[in-house]
Amino acid sequence: MAAHDADSQTYSIEVTTAEALVPLRHAILRPTLTVADARFPGDLEATTIHLAAIVRGRVLGCASFMAVPFEGREAYQLRGMATDPVIRGAGQWH
Prior knowledge:
Layout: E1 2-6, E2 9-16, H1 18-29, E3 49-55, E4 58-67, E5 76-83
Antiparallel strand pairs: 1-2, 2-3, 3-4, 4-5
């Protein structure tokens, strides 16, 4: 989708699958629960968009956008947003 070079750290933002995001979601958002608990209702819907921030082949950031109507209009709900601690707060994503 897009590639950037911030402080010599090349990363890309890519459309991906829910399964590609499950390990990061589990580690960051639900570490005391099972891996299955990092899979959300709506993950497999055709209208759901999954994005990953990838550095050197590793998913270090993620977000999922699920189609959820709001007040009778089309809308998307942000779910499962997580950032790996190795880049959190490092200013890499500005």
